[in-house]
Amino acid sequence: MPKNDKPVSTRSDKQSIDQFIHQVRKTPQQAGGQGRLIFALDATASREATWDQACDLQSELFLATRDLGGLAIQLCYYRGFREFRSTAFVTQTSQLLKLMNGVSCLGGRTQISRVLAHAVKETRTQPVKAVVFIGDCCEEPVDELCHTAGELGMLRTPVFMFHEGSDAHARAVFQQVSKLSGGAYAPFDRNSPQVLRDLMAAVAVYASGGAKALQDYSSRSSPEVKRLTQQLR
């Protein structure tokens, strides 16, 4: 797969990563072990403009949980003609960034159903605390997506659907998927990366520390995070 030749971090980024790793090593794990989170991305051509932004912001998934015992994250993505891939679970920002920088966007139809089915399979093997999905459209039968989302709800694996853009059909589908799974829906604009950063950090906190940790985080965070938290009550 094509590689991204841009520098993947600055010196300050490396310092933050090093501090995070040091903190995780000395912080006691939460009851039940390290939280597992699936980070799923639409990598079709329509998302190319914001793919680099997602690469830049993914470190928030780790950094937000440094006081909660850390997080193990699996990257999933789909693109092209029925191409769907998932990685091993990783525990360091540098590992996830390397995986994401090895992916380029490629035209194709959405495969959200495969993301949700994969999440069901993973959580039946070992519990997954949350699924984050970032996408902008939906080209699949709604009933199938809702059925699998309901399965995830029964398994207590909420899906957080982060919607880029303003497609009305995608909004309606994403809201149903999040509700049936016990998760939450949140829109974001490609011109407001801070919103996506806050939302990703909030889900990471939830996956690591549960609802109480998210409520604590929400109380000092942005209005978007507060709205996300309210959907879980």
Description:
- The model is unreliable at 1-32 (pLDDT under 50).
- Helix 5 (112-125) runs parallel beside helix 6 (142-154), helix 6 runs parallel beside helix 7 and helix 8 (193-218) crosses helix 9.
- Strand 2 and strand 3 form a beta hairpin.
- The longest helix is centred in the C-terminal third of the chain and has 26 residues, at 193-218.
- The chain is built from nine helices and six strands.
- It has a six-stranded mixed sheet, sandwiched between helices.
- The protein has helices spanning 11-26, 48-57, 59-63, 93-101, 112-125, 142-154, 168-181, 193-218, 223-231, and strands at 35-42, 71-79, 83-90, 130-135, 159-164, 184-188.
Write the layout of secondary structure elements.
Blueprint: H1 11-26, E1 35-42, H2 48-57, H3 59-63, E2 71-79, E3 83-90, H4 93-101, H5 112-125, E4 130-135, H6 142-154, E5 159-164, H7 168-181, E6 184-188, H8 193-218, H9 223-231
Parallel strand pairs: 1-2, 1-4, 4-5, 5-6
Antiparallel strand pairs: 2-3
Helix pairs in contact: 5-6, 6-7, 8-9
